[in-house]
Structures are given as structure tokens and as C-alpha cells.
Model the fold of this input.
Amino acid sequence: MPQVVSVLNNLRIAKPWGFFYTIWIEDYMKTAIFVDGAFFLKRFKNLYEGEKDYKNAEVVANELCSLCYKHLLMKDKGKEEHELYRIFFYDCPPLDKKAHYPISHKCVDFGKSDLAKFKHDFLENLKRKRKVALRLGRVQDLEGWTLKPGVLKKILAGNLKFEDLTDDDFVYGFRQKEIDMKIGIDIASVAYKKQVNRIVLIAGDADFVPAAKLARREGIDFILDPMWMPIHSDLFEHIDGLQSPSLKPKAIREKEEKMLKEKKGFKAKKTNS
Done:
């Protein structure tokens, strides 16, 4: 059937087929999902801590795919509305170098850290997933240690002295490069080639706006999933919808549970009276 739709599209046959042509097109709408890897991993830990093993690479890889496939389901009906074109996952390999701590001067091998091992196993798991494409950028080494933001605030507030600093108060500086550029190029590519009808972007900043504008001008339905992170109101004018099928933040879940209990209590009280 998708081949039939493709042929009809190329021949631009619309009027003779009419209603049936429209149905075929809608039944086979394709969705491409773009995932900002660093954003996803950070939000996953925040949302699923205590619910899922966020330190298990296989578990996290499976949950990522589960989240993406939820975007293909019809709301409240639980059946597929869209066909998956591909999941594009953007991240950088872990930092692989040695350095010396600023206080103890002990050597640390970042390539053998728990974070590096997790990232390596996580990316290997994703490579084996069907319809998942890895887009890896590079790590820019800033070659230096900086104080963690919270530690700096304590020093400025006079709650911590320099002589009391430890290695744990510092973080080594590095930056992801080429990720935003790769996301923008890939969105532009699938948009210009008419490979999909809908794009879902799992991200949380405004760097996607130029790519979103381009995709929408090409007639693509552009959905943003910030995984329940609040976004600036100005961003709504650049997207076609906002949806987050991931687990809700704990505060929201607790508030909804409280409201549900109050509602049940009110109904029970009303029935008894």
C-alpha cells in the first residue's frame, strides 16, 4: 500500500481517486523522531529516579524506544496512527582522557569512569535497535576544572572557605559540539525530501526554532516533547503541538493523586448523605 501511495503522489493523481486517495495518505502518515541525547538522559533521570534503574544502559535504551513508540499511538485509543520512519538519536561519545584532580592531584581516567561505561553500553544498545540511527558529535575538551555552581554560591555567601574545598567540588570542563547542527541538517533533509508527514522533537531549548520553521513551511506537522519541562510561551508559535507521553514529574503525580482522593471522598460523602 505505501508503494501505491508513493506512485499516486508522484503522478499527482488526486481527483479520480478522491476520497480513497485521502484515506490511504492518512493511514500511512510517517513520523520521524529526533532526540537530543543529553537532554533525554538528564530528564529521564529526573523523572524516573526511584521508578526505573536509570543507571542500567539496557533499561534506559528500552525506555527511550518505548517513549518514541508512544508518540505513534492515537490519543486515548492505544492503536498506531503513524508509521515510524526512523528514530534519530544525537549525542557525543564519552570523554576519553586522563587528568589530575585540582586538590589531591590524583590521576583520573575519564574513559574508565562509571559515566563513560554507561554511555558506551547505552550507545551500543541503541545501535542494535530497529529503526534507530545514531548521530554522534564530538567532545570539545576545555582542558580545565571549574567549581560546581552550587559550591561557588556557598563561597560567595561565605558558607565555604577555599581551604575546605575537595576534589568533589570541581567538575572537568568539556562541551558537546555539532549536535544542534546535525539535528538541524537532518530535519531539513527529511523535510525537503518529503520523507515524513510529522516530526517529533524530544528536546528542551530554543535551538530547534529555525529547523521547526523550515519543516512547517514544507507542510510538516511539528511536535515538541520537552518531557514535562516547562518551555517559554514564545516557543508555541513555532510548533504545531506539545505532548509528553513520558512519566509525569513526581510533584504533578502527587497533586493529581490528592485531587483524585478528594474527588472520591466528595462523591462518597454525597452518596451517604
Observations:
- Residues 1-27 have pLDDT under 50 and may be disordered.
- The chain has one domain: 2-137+178-272.
